[in-house]
Amino acid sequence: MLVLGIDSSTQSTKALVVDADSGEVVAEAKASHPDGTEVNPAAWWEAAQSAIGEAVAQAPGRIEAVSVGGQQHGMVALDERGEVVRDALLWNDTRSAPQAAELTERHGAKELASRTGLVPVASFTITKLAWLAQNEPANADRVAQVLLPHDWVGWQLAGRPERTWTDHGDASGTGYYSPTTGEWLPEMLAEAMGGRTPKLPELLAPNAKAAVATLPGIEGATIGVGTGDNMAAALGLGLQPGDVVVSLGTSGAVFVPAEQPSADETGIVAGFCDATGRYLPLVCTLNAARVLSSTAQVLGTDLEGLSRLALQAEPGSGGLSLLPYLEGERTPNLPDATGTLTGLTGANMTPQNLARAAVEGMLCGMADAIDALRDTGAEVRRVLLIGGAARSEAVQAIAPGLFGVDVHIPDPAEYVALGAAKQAAWAHSGADTPPDWPVAGTSHPVGDDTSGTAVRAAYAAARHQVHGI
Ligand SMILES: Nc1ncnc2c1ncn2[C@@H]1O[C@H](COP(=O)(O)OP(=O)(O)O)[C@@H](O)[C@H]1O
Ligand SMILES: O=C(CO)[C@@H](O)[C@H](O)COP(=O)(O)O
């Protein structure tokens, strides 16, 4: 039986056709999304149709089920007719930072963490809706329903039926959902929207059959409930207790499977649900893979060239530290920050040191995130490194020393789309548990590499010097 998994993430849509019995990927395709932190969802649909069309054309049979994993938190506001009211504001759009601060001021971080699992930052959907209500009231008046990116793409696959739906994983990133009760908090949404009460999608179980596809090429396929991209990656990897994932895509996301919901009032760890009915505490930065591509551009090289240069420099980059807040930052909560390179001298300002400082700066943020998860009681047995930038040799070589634990690199694959495919197979089977597909990879033991301690100390000192934290 063949199933289709879709990853509608920040930079692109990926489609994988997977053999549901073996977990083997039999066809795949990708289509780009436009740049920017506000995007017309029509661009996601165009990319989805293109990637699905190409993948399905290579598939050796009929697609029985499909699911969508999508970038989390994006605000997709629809009017009475189901048309988008304005371009979606994405998770990495920081304009709603003042609304996040207002919400926290009004309710207190402790209360919000215990009610919603989150302390608001500009990424979360609720702050974007509050921004809309305050800045575009005429648009806010037209909002009849709010969806998340994966909800919207799944709804298009089904031919835009009357019913809309979502899952608990992606719902837990809105700020108007309770991970402890598993229900929406419509009063939070109404308050953020100045008393307006848009409809919310129906919350479905992780293995629900949500709808039936109408898209030519996959007509009649069961549509699974879908989920957020990080929840889909966790499902695709089949995590064991103590497995911490560091996902280096547009965002740097660090997460671990958990049996209980979390409520971190510091706001560093977001208390999300996963895509199996359990939980996924997660720390997310705005700056990951693009730190490397921007640095490669400055150095006049490509990503392989950047990796080669970085590996020619010594740990510590000759005294350079890069605070990589190129898009502002979410963790730490510095929405207006810019990047800073500290420690420059005539002697150390080499392409090799700059390249290594970019890799170290990106990974130091991830190492801080692993510590934050540990601080909430999470067991850290090993790190699994995934996402586009995990393909970099320099990243693979430098990560174990900075993280201070063994790093496992699952074979390069689209784990979000694979998790979505697994969810589709689960929904189609009606089984109690998702299928167990093998994931191959290579281990990079930390050994006696202690160079990371000094690198992280220099990075922390630079952050303290520049941002006082
Ligand atoms: N070999 C590599 N080295 C470093 N970065 C890479 C490499 N291959 C891909 N990337 C980066 O990975 C990013 C895409 O990763 P992906 O996980 O697909 O992101 P997203 O899910 O946010 O769309 C791009 O920014 C790309 O430049
Ligand atoms: O905001 C978060 C998680 O809270 C991001 O992880 C988004 O879900 C986007 O992911 P990528 O496109 O970078 O994979």
Q: Which features does this protein show?
A:
469 residues, alpha/beta, Nucleotidyltransferase, domain 5, 2 domains, 7-stranded mixed β-sheet, 36% helix, binds adenosine-5'-diphosphate, binds 5-O-phosphono-D-xylulose
Task: Write up what this structure looks like.
36% of the residues lie in helices and 21% in strands. The chain has 469 residues and is of the alpha/beta class. The structure holds adenosine-5'-diphosphate and 5-O-phosphono-D-xylulose. 5-O-phosphono-D-xylulose binds at residues 9-10, 71-73, 91, 123, 173, 228-230, 249-251, 253, 282, 284. Residues 3-236 form the Carbohydrate kinase FGGY N-terminal domain. GO terms for molecular function: ATP binding; D-xylulokinase activity.
